[in-house]
Amino acid sequence: MKQLSLIFMLLLTLLSAGDIVWQKDLESALSLAEKEHRLVMVMVEGEHCRWCKKMRYRTLDDARVVQKLSSYVNVRVDENDRTAMKLLPAIRGVPTIFFLSPDRKLLQKVEGYYAADDFLSFFKGIEQQTWQLR
Fold first, then answer.
1. Does 9 reside within a domain?
2. How do the residues of the chain divide into helix, strand and coil, expressed in percent and rounded to 5?
3. pLDDT value of residue 17
4. Between 3 and 82, the higher pLDDT residue
5. Cβ neighbours of residue 67 under 8 Å, at least 6 residues apart?
6. What's the pLDDT tens digit per position in 59-114?
7. Cα separation, 71 vs 38, whole angstroms
């Protein structure tokens, strides 16, 4: 019985460890990134956007993407949140993802839906830019 409980707890830990940690709002995410010197990933989405949901539940749930984003400060922003949108570059549609440096410089803008393999390809460019900023 103890072994079964231990196995159950281990599985629960593994399942819960694979989620992206989302900050509650853009301002707190930007403050945290600046304080901890971490990159920021901002996902701008719409309430009824099916591509946004597909991006969140397919691409951003992929274990490789989750692992990559574990060192980032991550935040989701609704396209109708005027306060947050004033702090970001203009968008043409959703989903739009911004990768920002800790000092809020735009490193990469990703527009539209991307499958996990394609989305992962953006990280190489981000990592190269980050290396040049050091």
1. no
2. 50, 20, 35
3. 46
4. 82
5. none
6. 999 999 999 999 999 999 999 999 999 999 999 999 999 999 999 999 999 999 99
7. 7
Classify 37 in phi/psi space as left (phi over 0), alpha (psi -120 to 50) or beta.
left
Element (H, E) at 128: helix 116-133
Find the length of the chain: 134
DSSP state of 78: E
Under 8 Å CB-to-CB from 30, ≥6 apart: which residues? 40, 73, 87, 100, 104
Contact 116, 64 (CB under 8 A): yes
Identity (one letter) of the amino acid at 38? R
Report the C-alpha gap between 125 and 110 in whole angstroms: 12
| Number of domains forming the structure of the chain | 1
* Radius of gyration of the chain, Cα coordinates, nearest whole angstrom: 16
Question: Of all helices (H) and strands (E), which one includes residue 69?
Answer: helix 63-69
User: What pLDDT score was predicted for residue 130?
Assistant: 79
Is 12 a member of any domain? Answer: no
Supply the DSSP symbol for 94: S
Question: Is 92 part of any domain?
Answer: yes
Residue type, 17: A
